[in-house]
Amino acid sequence: MRTISWPVNIGTAADLTGISAKMVRHYESLGLLPRVTRTDSGYRQYSETDVHTLHFIKRARDLGFSMAEIGELVALWQNRRRASASVKRIAQKHVDELAARIAAMQAMQRTLGHLLHHCHGDERPDCPILDDLSGRSAGA
User: Fold this and answer.
1) Which of 33, 47, 49, 62 is the most exposed place for a label (fewest CB within 10 A)?
2) Alpha carbon of 108 to those of 45, 71, 113: distances in Å?
């Protein structure tokens, strides 16, 4: 196990979190991460709390939350007086959006599967996939 001497530079913070230095700066510019302290020469210095916040942001991104949602979640996470109902509302909205996207993708999969099934895939020029994409039905 590696011993860490806090604060750490951006490269170490990136290594510890699996987030690129560019994204760390981006998250800071969006206000998801508070402005970090800097050395006299201008290098960013990240505290253990900053790195923990970066882990939080990465996990939220891995779960597909938007930057706006992550901003709300970070604020709620840092607010010890929060109501868990606020967190649940954000998560429920995200789950509902994911379910709608999954349903749309499943419909696309069914349609493409149907088209693939009806495509002969041989040397003939007629193709129900192209007919569908062009708006022509096979019977038209």
Assistant:
1) 62
2) 47, 32, 8
Instruction: Look up residue 62 and give its amino acid.
Output: D
Residue ranges in 31-127 assigned as alpha helix (H): 48-62, 67-78, 84-118
Q: What is the pTM of this model?
A: 0.85
Angle (deg, nearest 10), helices 48-62 and 10-17? 40
Residue-wise pLDDT tens digits, 37-78: 999 999 999 999 999 999 999 999 999 999 999 999 999 999
Distance (Å, whole) CA 93 – CA 104: 17
CA–CA gap between residue 51 and residue 59 (Å, rounded): 12
What 8-state DSSP symbol labels residue 37? E
Output helix, strand, coil percentages for the chain, rounded to the nearest 5: 60, 5, 35
Q: In whole angstroms, what is the distance from residue 52 CA to residue 7 CA? A: 12
Beta bridge partners of 46: 8
